[in-house]
Amino acid sequence: MTEFALDHVMMRVGDLEESLDWYQTHLDYEEKGRWEADTFTNVYLGPEDQADDAAVLELTYNHDTSEYDFGDAWGHIAVRVEDVEEAYAELMDEGVEDYRPPEENPGYAFVKDPDGHEVEIVERDHGARWSLDHTMIRVEDADEALGFWTRKFGYEHTGRWEADTFANYFMKPEGSSEEAMAIELTYNYDGREYDLGDAWGHVAVRADDLEAAWDDLMTREAVDYRDPESCDYQYAFTRDQDGHEIEVVNVDDTEMS
Fold it and tell me: What Gene3D superfamilies does this protein map onto (predicted)?
C-alpha cells in the first residue's frame, strides 16, 4: 500500500449503539474491528466490499462522556454514491433528517449523524457505495497547510475548487488509487480563526515501518507530539500547523478482525 495513505478518520460519539445502528442501517456499514479499553471503546466501520486501500471510519465512545464540543475547525466526512439524488431520497425514506438536499447543492448533499457530525454525499463513478471519499478540515493559512502535507507526507494535489470567498484543496500521496480517501483542506479568505473542539479526533495515515516513518517525519520537522515509544510502538501522533492531530499507524496493525 502507498506510504502515508489515509487509513481512517476518528470521530467521538455520545451513544455508541445509536451511532452504530445509524451507520449500519443507513450507510450499510459493517464492523471491521473493535478495541475495548477500560474507559473507552473504538469501533471501525466501512462498506463490506470496499477496496483494500480504502479508509475506514473509527467511532470512539468514551464511557464517561456523552456530549462534545464541535468547534468549527472540523468539517465533515464525505461518502461516495453513483447518484446523489437517489441516495438522498433513500435516506429521507429511512427517516434521516433533511439537512442540505441536492436541490440546494447540485452534485452533492449533506446529512447529519445522531451526534451532529456532517456527512457529505458525493457523486463518484469509482469506489464502493458509501465508502469514504474525503475528510474535510478547515485551515487558517492555505500556503502553510499545503506545504505541511506536501513536505511532511509527500502529498500532491488531486483537485481544487476556488470560489469567491473560499478554496478547497484535495490532497493524496503520490500513486494513491481512486478508492483511497483524500484530505480536503478548506481555506476561507476572511482570515478567520478556528476552534478545534473535541468531537473531532484525528485522521490516521499508514506506514510500512512506524519507526522509520517517524524518523522521516522528524527530519522533515514535523511536531513531536506522541512518539512511537510513548505509544508502545503501536502508533504515534503528530500535529499540523493548526493543531489537527494525525496518527501514524503500522500497516500490519491496520488489519482488523
Answer: 2,3-Dihydroxybiphenyl 1,2-Dioxygenase, domain 1 (3.10.180.10)
